Amino acid sequence: MLHRYLLLPLLASCSAAVTISVAKSGGNATTNLQYGAMEEEINHCGEGGLYAELIRNRAFQGSTKYPSSLDAWTAVGGSSLSLQNLTDPLSSALPTSVRVKGSGTAGLTNAGFWGIDVRPQKYTGSFYAKGDYSGSFTAALTSSNGKTLASTKVKSKSVSGKWVQHEFTLTAKSTASNTNNTFSLSFDASKAKNGYLDFNLISLFPPTWNDRPNGMRRDLMQALKDLNPKFLRFPGGNNLEGDTIEGRWKWNETIGPLKDRPGRATTWSYEETGGFGLIEYMEWCDDLGMEPILAVWAGLALNGDVVPEAELDVYVQDALDELEFLTGSVDTELGALRAKYGHPEPWKIRYVEVGNEDNLNNGLESYKSYRFAAFYDAITEKYPDIQVLASTIDMTLEGKAGGDYHLYDIPDNFITKFDMFDSYSPDHPILLGEIAATEFNNGEGIDWSDTNFSLYPWWIASVAEAVFLLGAERNADKIIGTTYAPFLMNLDSYQWSPTMISFNANPDDTAKSTSFHVYSLFNENHMTNTLPATSEDAFGPLYYATGLNSETNSRIFKAAVYNSTEDVPVSLTFSGVGRGTKADLTILTAPDALSMNEVGGQNIVKTQTTTIKAGKKGEFSFKLPNLSVAVLTTN
Ligand SMILES: *[C@@H]1O[C@H](CO)[C@@H](O)[C@H](O)[C@H]1NC(C)=O
Ligand SMILES: *[C@@H]1O[C@H](CO)[C@@H](O)[C@H](O)[C@H]1NC(C)=O
Ligand SMILES: *[C@@H]1O[C@H](CO)[C@@H](O)[C@H](O)[C@H]1NC(C)=O
Ligand SMILES: *[C@@H]1O[C@H](CO)[C@@H](O)[C@H](O)[C@H]1NC(C)=O
Ligand SMILES: *[C@@H]1O[C@H](CO)[C@@H](O)[C@H](O)[C@H]1NC(C)=O
Ligand SMILES: *[C@@H]1O[C@H](CO)[C@@H](O)[C@H](O)[C@H]1NC(C)=O
Ligand SMILES: *[C@@H]1O[C@H](CO)[C@@H](O)[C@H](O)[C@H]1NC(C)=O
């Protein structure tokens, strides 16, 4: 008895190291597993987020679900605003416009997507006006205390009975003290016939990423580039499906001139303009070097409506048309249309996903019996090189079809799924298309009716994700790639948390989450092959994957420690790596399990890199603390 008491503290302070021996060869080629991104029109991820348009409700678009409104707009001075469905609208896609009526200075002011960032740079704007007007317009950016930050006069080209587009630029001289700024467009109503003018499609862009017209917010693109995602799954999950069959995402209504894009009621509580459309998604992929994983609508809407087998052909054809539009030569009808819209070079599509979560919402039976096969057969026949993915793994996958697995859960349940892929066959590769620990550990599991999802990823959740990702890395021959979901959240209007990156109108406030840092570390250290490892110790609290980068011949050890009462000592050898070999060891830690990276706050993830040397037997000896994520790479 006495001995035990004496020995206990001794054991705790020098507990035996976890000894891991990594073989020289014999693992699996893993060039497949990539860390990527996914797009879902949620949380003003695209519009009001990545899509750089600054004017909210720019074309008064509406639907039965979200009727058109004057949301975000107010009248200048004593003028009045009214929505109109004119008999001669700007376009059939944009039937509703605004009438601005007044006596002296009249106009309208927009509050932006909960603020407008103003700094010394050039803003590019345009609007359509209709009505007989001989004066000029004033476009301006103004601070909340009335200071003019930028202003310009635009000479009227308006003529009676015609919609005429006006373009302008605005240059701000200094940085506004906050983002509580507005954009306004005004005119001299005394010089307008009847004292009013009609306006539509009022737009303003800051400088965009790669200076693309109709492009993307530079700071958020930079944040994504910092993660270096290798693929993009788009155009979303639930957003692709739509609430009803008619409400599905229609690729053909997101292309061409902005005035011909009707927009659509998203699943996630707002009307979208369609400005951030199929071509913009492809340009996004081009600009960040991401492999597109294109999802096509598969005959299931979120309300459970399913297209019957006899009526499915038109939707299969629609998917083939979309592929022709993206990949067809200019000699094809739709390839020629793409060229007309500025992209003569065909894009390459290597992955197509059929639908989204077709195991849910009354979808599985029809998906298994005819929906998936109809798309799989048609796409595979016309495009044999495309890897077609089912949107679930709850079914027998035919031919060379792959699947998509989504996981939202409490952190503890990510640990129990560490070995989930060990028994999978590599014949049907899996995409981990949506992965996130969302709800705090509660001993039970995720409760979808509970709204206590975390606002941001928090450290223990990110470590739990790392453990699950290590399970995927160990089986990387079976996994195409993995992405956190959703990716972006505008903190001023969101429906879902947590997300990978959170932001508001102020680019200086963007928060890269704790999970961002974990994904980034694993992504930076890509393994081209796994290498088998042996150890006396079972997995837990230390979890790891071992491999090689065949280009640099660097050996790689990726690890995470979850739920340990003490630091975990590790003794790691790689067969063929001798005494004195140097390795870089990077360890991520955070102040505590509930630490988060918040919008406007500091990064709380501590990244520590040290160089260590292999000992006499080629062993690398180091300790990994509780709740840490680490990567060791030999030089
Ligand atoms: C314009 O038309 C839409 C669609 O029919 C309708 O919902 C809306 O109320 C109309 N708006 C006005 C101002 O008449
Ligand atoms: C922004 O300005 C408006 C008035 O223009 C004011 O009501 C609001 O409180 C301001 N918001 C902030 C965060 O300063
Ligand atoms: C887009 O395609 C759908 C078929 O999926 C069709 O019903 C719709 O009319 C098309 N829209 C336009 C603007 O051509
Ligand atoms: C982590 O530790 C807690 C507290 O001891 C325990 O309830 C939980 O089951 C552990 N989780 C895992 C995945 O081991
Ligand atoms: C949500 O979870 C946090 C962290 O576990 C806890 O402190 C808080 O009480 C929970 N809130 C509700 C409403 O359950
Ligand atoms: C390689 O793949 C096979 C078959 O999936 C699997 O049994 C084996 O454990 C894998 N080896 C490694 C080192 O991951
Ligand atoms: C390790 O992390 C777990 C959470 O998984 C926590 O409950 C425990 O107190 C931590 N142990 C130490 C020694 O910090």
Automatic annotation (TrEMBL):
GO terms classed as biological process: L-arabinose metabolic process
Keywords from the UniProt entry: Glycoprotein, Glycosidase, Hydrolase, Signal
Protein's name according to its UniProt entry: non-reducing end alpha-L-arabinofuranosidase
Organism: Penicillium argentinense
PANTHER family listed in its UniProt record: ALPHA-L-ARABINOFURANOSIDASE 1 (PTHR31776:SF0)
Keyword Transport: no
Any one GO MF annotation of this record: alpha-L-arabinofuranosidase activity
Domain (Alpha-L-arabinofuranosidase C-terminal): residue spans on this chain: 458-628
Family statement drawn from the similarity comment of this UniProt entry: Belongs to the glycosyl hydrolase 51 family.
Enzyme Commission numbers on file: 3.2.1.55
Pathway: Glycan metabolism; L-arabinan degradation
Major enzyme class: hydrolase
Reactions it catalyzes: Hydrolysis of terminal non-reducing alpha-L-arabinofuranoside residues in alpha-L-arabinosides
InterPro entries associated with the record: Alpha-L-AF_C, ASD1_cat, Galactose-bd-like_sf, GH, Glyco_hydro_b, Glycosyl_Hydrolase_51
